[in-house]
């Protein structure tokens, strides 16, 4: 078993919203990161986002230009998973939230990674136990659920699958602390803790809009000013991605067989129409104006 102090090389699968943030965070803490996505275009988008987020940190004098260059220098990109996971101590999978895709990726990882490599997933809701079961190392499979935006948010929800070992859990808890995060251990049930509580609130806010009780801005204002939430639930849904919210609700609906998790028909319609939130330019709010999503995010991030 690799100890936290011996961990140097990390592979991150997926350079989207979460993957680029996870790569950024490890690289800024001095790890060598191999960032993998399906195309050069996705990798470029991810690397551009990391560079812009580092620029913002330099402008706020949180890091120096040299720190920025070192962080970017710690990241290498790959379009081949097999090449990208060679010689790594840990893989953090942050590909699209889709069970079939994740099972396929973990089967491949199990086949090509060294037997000591720990396999973590950033899934928001899919069973760690089910993912682990397609590998020959279920004791080395664990949930490492970072929050969005990863470089800023302190929490990492650490999810133990049915077979995850104590050693692996301790290693990943300690590793999260070396990233400056606060790891919190939870067990493997649909939605874990974070989304089991958050998603019904987001879904209810969409249902409130769908029922005509109030408009988008009004619902968000009530929750921001009334409950001291830094961001309203509809705007948060836009930043998470409406497709991601829908997938998580479906996993909980299927997992618990309880209608309280049934996704609101308005959410289903918006996803079918391609209105996925900030990443597609439109969700409950319009983000088509240049960099509008980033401007809103930076206000929220202070
Ligand atoms: P995203 O759609 O922004 O990015 C997913 C990326 O994965 C894309 O760039 C896609 O090209 C890539 N990808 C798909 N298949 C791949 C493969 N086989 N190999 C390599 N790359 C592949 O999604 P996201 O929001 O970053 O979500 C990623 C994961 O993180 C999901 O499991 C999601 O549930 C979880 N998550 C999301 C959030 C959030 O706020 N968005 C928060 C916590 C966890």
UniProtKB/TrEMBL annotation:
This is 3-hydroxybutyryl-CoA dehydrogenase. Transmembrane segments: none annotated. Its EC number is 1.1.1.157. The lineage of its organism: Bacteria, Pseudomonadati, Bacteroidota, Flavobacteriia, Flavobacteriales. PANTHER family: 3-HYDROXYACYL-COA DEHYDROGENASE FAMILY PROTEIN (PTHR48075), 3-HYDROXYBUTYRYL-COA DEHYDROGENASE (PTHR48075:SF5). GO terms for biological process: fatty acid metabolic process. Keywords: NAD, Oxidoreductase. The record marks 145 as: Important for catalytic activity. Residues 191-287 form the 3-hydroxyacyl-CoA dehydrogenase C-terminal domain. It is an enzyme of class 1 (oxidoreductase). It holds the Pfam family 3HCDH. InterPro entries: 3-OHacyl-CoA_DH, 3-OHacyl-CoA_DH_CS, 3-OHacyl-CoA_DH_NAD-bd, 3HC_DH_C, 6-PGluconate_DH-like_C_sf, 6PGD_dom2, NAD(P)-bd_dom_sf. NAD(+) binds at residues 14-19, 37, 97, 102, 124, 148, 279. NCBIfam families: PRK05808.1 (NF004474). Residues 9-188 form the 3-hydroxyacyl-CoA dehydrogenase NAD binding domain. GO terms for molecular function: 3-hydroxybutyryl-CoA dehydrogenase activity; NAD+ binding. Belongs to the 3-hydroxyacyl-CoA dehydrogenase family.
């Amino acid at each position: 078993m690799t100890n936290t102090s011996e961990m140097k090389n990390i592979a991150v699968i997926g350079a989207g919203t979460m993957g680029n943030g996870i790569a950024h965070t490890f690289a800024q803490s001095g790890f060598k990161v191999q960032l993998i996505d399906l195309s050069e275009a996705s990798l470029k988008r991810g690397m551009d986002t990391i560079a812009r987020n580092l620029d913002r940190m330099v402008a706020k004098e949180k890091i120096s230009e040299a720190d920025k260059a070192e962080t970017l220098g710690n990241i290498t990109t790959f379009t081949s998973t097999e090449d990208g996971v060679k010689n790594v101590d840990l893989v953090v999978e942050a590909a699209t939230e889709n069970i079939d895709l994740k099972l396929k990726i973990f089967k491949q990882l199990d086949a090509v990674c060294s037997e000591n490599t720990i396999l973590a997933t950033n899934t928001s809701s899919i069973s760690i136990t089910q993912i682990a079961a397609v590998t020959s190392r279920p004791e080395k499979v664990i949930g490492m659920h970072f929050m969005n935006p990863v470089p800023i948010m302190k929490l990492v929800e650490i999810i133990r699958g049915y077979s995850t070992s104590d050693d692996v859990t301790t290693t990943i808890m300690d590793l999260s602390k070396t990233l400056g995060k606060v790891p919190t251990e939870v067990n493997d049930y649909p939605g874990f803790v974070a989304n089991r509580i958050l998603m019904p609130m987001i879904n209810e806010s969409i249902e409130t809009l769908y029922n005509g009780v109030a408009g988008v801005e009004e619902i968000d204002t009530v929750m921001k000013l009334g409950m001291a939430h830094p961001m309203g639930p509809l705007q948060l849904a836009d930043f998470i991605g409406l497709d991601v919210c829908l997938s998580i609700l479906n996993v909980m609906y299927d997992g618990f067989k309880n209608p309280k998790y049934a996704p609101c028909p308005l959410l289903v319609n918006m996803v079918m129409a391609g209105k996925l939130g900030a990443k597609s330019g439109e969700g409950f709010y319009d983000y088509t104006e240049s960099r509008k999503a980033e401007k809103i995010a930076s206000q929220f991030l202070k």
